[in-house]
Amino acid sequence: MGVPSREFSVPAAAKTDVCEYAIKIVEKKFIQVQNRGNRVITERLMLAKMDHPKIVRLYFAFQDLWSLYFGLEPVLGGDLATQIERMGTCSWEFTRFYTAEIIDILSYLRQCRVAHRDLKPENLLLTSEGHLKLVDFDAAMQVPEPDEGEGDAAAGRPCGGEFPPAESFVGTALYVAPEVLLGTAKPQQAFGLDVWALGCIVYLMTVGRTPFHAESEYLVFQRVQTLDYACPPRVWKKARQFIEGLLQLAPQQRLGVCQEGVADLAAA
Fold first, then answer.
1. How does pLDDT run across 12-26, given as a tens digit for each residue?
2. Class of domain 7-72
3. Which of 36, 81, 167, 199 has its Cβ near the most Cβ atoms within 10 Å?
4. Domain coordinates of the chain in residue numbers?
């Protein structure tokens, strides 16, 4: 499933039927050492309410003395990161197809008022038919309505469990938005984190590397905060305009973050 260290998946089949599952195993010792209890709860709660063909399905969950177990839909086609790495610079058709698939996912999450907050090619698995499945919801949060106050919902803590606040550092360096690094992220603007990550993914597909790559994580962060990137001349005009619309320093100025939401992305 492409999960981090001390979390791993194994194939499994039920004895009473022909169903197959991917069992994600999370060691309790790892949860305690890394203080990841809330994130594990978040993933279970989020996956339990997701119902979309491009989001991995959670069938069951259980635990023993040593580990937690998630029975997930098996996705056997690898991940988008590996596919992009094999191709180097992706074709216009490839880029358009998978950008549209990600937008479809973000549209559903927007309807559910959920921000994934760790959108990256490694978390986008491929089915045997070549379609995407989004995984790893441990950093996700419920996004409050625009008119909600600064109470629990604004802090990203809906009923049913404590979700991490928008300003907490989650995600991956190459895809993290500047407001997270600056500590200015607002829960109501959490959709902007996924939109920023989409811009980085589209850039990766069209250029062959991420927009803010550097020799160290510190330098990556510096480039992100100053919007230090450029599209090579070979990048198609529509792709360049789309990327520029997504990679805006101010979350509210990013394409797809305003009231019209993901419809803007689909129309771009």
1. 555 555 578 999 999
2. alpha beta
3. 199
4. 7-72, 80-267
